[in-house]
Amino acid sequence: MQLDKKVIGHEFKAFTTTVEAGKVKLFCKAIGEEDPIYADEAAAKAAGYSALPVPPTFLQAITNDDPEKGGLLRLLNVDIGLILHGEQHYDYFAPVHVGDKITCQQKVTDMYDKKGGALWFVVSETSLKNQAGKLVAKGTGITVVRNPDAAKK
Amino acid sequence: MVAAPKFDQVKVGDTLKPIVLPPISRHQLALYCGGSGDHNPIHVDLDFAKKFGFKDVFAHGMLSMGFLGRLVTSYAPRDRIRKLGTRFTSITWVGDVITLSGKVTGKREENGEKLIDLEVKCTNQNGQDTLQGHATVAAA
After folding, report:
1. How confident is the model at residue A117 (pLDDT cuts 50, 70, 90)?
2. Average pLDDT over residues B39-55
3. CB contact under 8 A, B86 and A31
4. Which of A65, A38, A84 is closest to B70 using CA atoms?
5. Domain spans, chain A
6. What is the mean pLDDT of residues B119-127?
7. Which of A16, A50, B18, B38 gives a 20 to 30 Å CA spacing to A66?
8. Sheet containing B129-138: which strands, arranged edge to edge?
């Protein structure tokens, strides 16, 4: 398997998704988050939020709403069983609330290998803008691809 | 409800109150699969995980990053989180007992905001860090 550095700079098709209360609720259950500000509007308002906020890493659920999910794997032509998550970083610029319409745009920004090509690191950045066009957050992820050929050598 | 940390009272080296989580269960991985939209079968389908050389399913890295989010929002309100990032340094297996811990590593002012930098991490029952992360929160 040889990954092609030409994918650096590739921009995926942007998509827009609405932040839904039910999804936030399930996400909170999954991570064991019990703060009522994420589920109860009265609690959110009492804490100073204009609407239900979302947990910091709920951004992942937003970016996973991509109708063409798996674009990075298809671009690299690797099987989902060969990838691991290396790093994830979020910068938060403005609040995200239930009801917001978030437009996500992902692009590949870097790619490099380690251990003689046994592991590939693919860096991508995703911008998240709300319905007002305001940049609310940026996600930077590193996907690690395990090269199955490297083990055979 | 957590109050915003007061910049003048925060000292580098201050520690966050640790959180010890219940053991990671297969049920939790199924919930996170649905809740996060990360449907990679390697986290929920044992047959699939074995096919790709793993002894068992293992936790989504982002589930643990969600735990780090809980730790940081136990220290500062949600709307004061400016950055949260992590390296996934080792795999979290079913049954692992994860402890969340953090400490203040810096204080600074940027764009008119008083910021506190934190080191945050997930550590398993063997003392091995599974996530080594960082966060920045705005102080009062």
Report:
1. confident
2. 96
3. no
4. A38
5. 5-152
6. 98
7. A50
8. A15-18, A101-114, A119-129, A135-146, A83-92, B81-88, B129-138, B113-123, B99-110, B19-20
Collect all residues of chain B within an 8 Å Cβ-Cβ radius of residue A86. Answer: 87-88
* Among A32, A53, A84, beta carbon nearest to B78: A53
pTM above 0.90, yes or no: yes
Q: Complex ipTM, two decimals?
A: 0.97
A80–B82 CB contact, under 8 Å: no
Tens digits of residue pLDDT in A13-57: 999 999 999 999 999 999 999 999 999 999 999 999 999 999 999
Residue B20 lies in a domain: yes
The CATH number assigned to the domain with range A5-152 reads 3.10.129.10
Burial of A133 (0-12, 13-18, 19+ CB in 10 A): exposed
Which residue(s) pair with A17 in the sheet? Answer: A102
Residue A23 touches chain B, beta carbons under 8 Å: yes
Domain count, chain B: 1
Chain A and chain B share a number of CB contacts under 8 A equal to: 119
Q: What is the CATH number of the domain that holds B27?
A: 3.10.129.10
pLDDT at res. A151: 61
Domain assignment present for B2: no
Quick: pLDDT tens for A62-88. 999 999 999 999 999 999 999 999 999
Asked whether the beta carbons of A69 and B108 are under 8 A apart, the reply is: no
Instruction: Identify how many contiguous H helices and E strands chain A contains and give both numbers.
Output: 5, 5
Query: In B, which residues are within 8 Å of A64 by CB distance?
Result: 36-38
